[in-house]
């Protein structure tokens, strides 16, 4: 996945100003979000307009840069303004076609930063959204003339940028409660098990054959009592599915890395008994692997469904 992200307005065409300066802060957010996206394996192109002297030149320069790049998504970062106030005003994300993405961005920034959630708003009158050729969103981070927003933004700048990045990268749960997938459950090597070519029965129910059609996983620790559902996401294809936990593995049977905040022990190259491993920290059923677009082995992110 590749994203073009730009700051609103320009060095010579200034935006709103109050407790915060829109142009200065949008540039800081864009640059940090780009760093975070690259860490998440996303290709990023960044643009700041340093030369335009009129609004028309500015809008055309931004859109022309976006449209000249190979990418999957266009993102513009702005800050809002209304009137000087000490009240919190909040975040909103504007869109024409990307209602779900806009809503996820607003929700994440409200939940993890603490902004008032003004939500996703469809706007058909904005040059950027109307003229970029790929799916696009315009983020209004917060209000520059709200002292409450400014204080929250400055105190939690890193969270602002990380919330934007993980949603753009698809590294979050979209169902309530919204959550960022823990780092130690991302980029997990997944192998395929079960089915007609690999006969196994469930470690939790020996009468249950692990077949070719059901969506299930194995995790390397035994769960007691009711087992949570697991959502598995393949960033390479953008596909995600919910599966049940039906077996214990791969490799280890006592490695609850999700609870310990560690990476799967099998990534060290040997398991806890000294066997050479393929580094896998989750097993996928044949049907689940197929639904995610994984053939044999791949990398996934996963989390427990609420």
Explain how this protein is built.
It is elongated and about 70 Å long. The chain has 8 helices and 14 strands. It folds into 2 domains: 179 residues, Zn-dependent exopeptidases (Aminopeptidase), CATH 3.40.630; 120 residues, RlpA-like domain (Barwin-like endoglucanases, Beta Barrel). Helices cover 27% and strands 27% of the residues. The chain has a 6-stranded mixed sheet, with helices on both faces. The chain is of the alpha/beta class and 306 residues long.
Notable characteristics:
single chain, 306 residues, alpha/beta, Aminopeptidase, Barwin-like endoglucanases, 2 domains, six-stranded mixed β-sheet, six-stranded mixed β-barrel, 8 helices, 27% helix, elongated
Secondary structure blueprint with pairings:
Layout: E1 2-10, H1 22-39, E2 43-49, H2 55-67, E3 73-80, E4 91-95, H3 99-113, E5 117-122, H4 127-131, E6 136-143, H5 147-155, H6 157-168, E7 172-173, E8 179-180, E9 188-192, E10 216-219, E11 230-234, E12 239-248, H7 257-260, E13 282-284, H8 286-292, E14 297-304
Parallel strand pairs: 1-2, 1-3, 3-6, 4-5, 9-13, 10-12
Antiparallel strand pairs: 4-6, 7-8, 9-14, 10-13, 11-12, 11-14
Helix pairs in contact: 1-6, 3-6
């Amino acid at each position: 996945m590749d994203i073009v992200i730009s700051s609103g307005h320009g060095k010579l065409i200034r935006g709103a100003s109050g407790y915060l300066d829109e142009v200065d802060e949008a540039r800081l957010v864009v640059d940090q979000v780009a760093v975070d996206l690259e860490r998440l394996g996303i290709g990023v192109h960044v643009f700041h307009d340093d030369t335009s002297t009129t609004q028309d030149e500015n809008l055309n320069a931004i859109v022309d840069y976006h449209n000249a790049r190979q990418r999957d998504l266009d993102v513009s970062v702005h800050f809002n303004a209304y009137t000087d106030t000490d009240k919190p005003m909040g975040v909103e994300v504007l869109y024409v076609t990307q209602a779900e993405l806009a809503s996820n961005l607003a929700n994440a920034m409200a939940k993890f930063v603490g902004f008032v959630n003004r939500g996703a708003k469809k706007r058909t009158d904005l040059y950027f959204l109307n003229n970029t050729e790929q799916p696009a969103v315009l983020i209004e981070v917060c209000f520059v003339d709200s002292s409450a927003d400014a204080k929250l933004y400055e105190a939690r700048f890193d969270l602002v940028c990380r919330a934007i990045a993980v949603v753009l990268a698809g590294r979050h749960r979209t169902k309530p409660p919204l959550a960022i997938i823990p780092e130690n459950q991302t980029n997990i090597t997944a192998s395929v098990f079960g089915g007609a070519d690999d006969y196994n029965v469930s470690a939790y129910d020996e009468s249950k054959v692990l077949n070719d059609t059901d969506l299930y996983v194995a995790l390397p620790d035994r769960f007691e009592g009711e087992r949570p559902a697991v959502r598995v996401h393949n960033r390479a294809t953008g596909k995600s599915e919910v599966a049940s936990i039906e077996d214990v593995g791969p490799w280890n049977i006592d490695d609850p890395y999700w609870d310990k905040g560690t990476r799967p022990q099998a990534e060290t190259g040997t398991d806890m008994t000294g066997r050479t491993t393929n580094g896998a920290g989750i097993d996928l059923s044949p049907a689940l692997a197929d639904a995610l677009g994984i053939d044999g082995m791949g990398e996934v992110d996963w989390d427990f469904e609420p």
